[in-house]
Amino acid sequence: MKLAALTCCIALLFSCQNKAQTAMTTNTNSIETMTKQSIHQFKVTDLSGNTFDFATLKGKKILVVNTASKCGLTPQYKDLETLYTTYKDKGLVIVGFPANNFFSQEPGTNEEIAQFCQLNYGVTFPMMAKVSVKGKDMCEVYQFLTQQAKNGVEDSDVEWNFQKYLLNENGELEKVISPRTKPLDEEIVNWVKG
Q1: DSSP assignment of the chain, as one string?
Q2: How many CB atoms lie within 10 A of CB 34?
């Protein structure tokens, strides 16, 4: 009787252990098959109406920023351009996305935005066509940047114009930087150099 009970316990123990191992293997396999999304999957339109393919930026660090021409933070264009010209040959690309989501501070057309950026700040970094960075009409790039389910890092809301998203050489989100943090802030410069 004791031998039969002991045999049953051992069989039950092995059965539970096998089920646990099978469950762990299944979970591990499903985790391995999930792929982290990258900004490199997106193609967008630039201010001139040309296709801009983020896949061409593989191997470079990317700073994505939503911009506006009539905002108290608009002078950040100058520091963004300085950051870009200083580090573009060391693997940094800044990509600007004009957006009119905050108190209509970017009311211009793509042509007007391009003229404003060049005339007032000498912007040479890539500027995309005007998009929405909030709400139901949010563009796909910003859906990726703001949704953890897509970027694999964190959920975020675009707080204001000039919020910065820092992406590594693989196109993966690493940091979200407040709009009020200036482009030449130590946190951003150290990330670029790192």
Answers
A1: -HHHHHHHHHHHHHHHHHHHHHHHHHHHHHHHH-----GGG-EEEBTTS-EEEGGGGTTSEEEEEEE-SSSTTTTHHHHHHHHHHHHGGGTEEEEEEEB-TTTT---S-HHHHHHHHHHHH---S-BBPPB--SSTT--HHHHHHH-HHHHSS------STT-EEEE-TTS-EEEEE-TTS-TT-HHHHHHHH-
A2: 8
| Alpha-carbon gap, residue 111 to 194, rounded angstroms | 36
**Annotated catalytic sites, by residue?**
71
CB 95 within 8 A of CB 61: no
For 141-156, what is each residue's pLDDT tens digit? 999 999 999 999 999 9
Q: Considering the chain, what is the average pLDDT of its residues?
A: 89
In sequence order, the 6+-apart residues with CB closer than 8 A to the CB of 38 are: 170, 171, 172
- Inform me whether the pLDDT recorded for 31 exceeds 70: no
Task: Note the pTM of the prediction, 2 decimals.
Answer: 0.83
> What is 39-193's CATH topology?
Glutaredoxin (3.40.30)
For residue 40, what pLDDT band results from cuts at 50, 70 and 90?
A: very high
Give the pLDDT of residue 36: 73
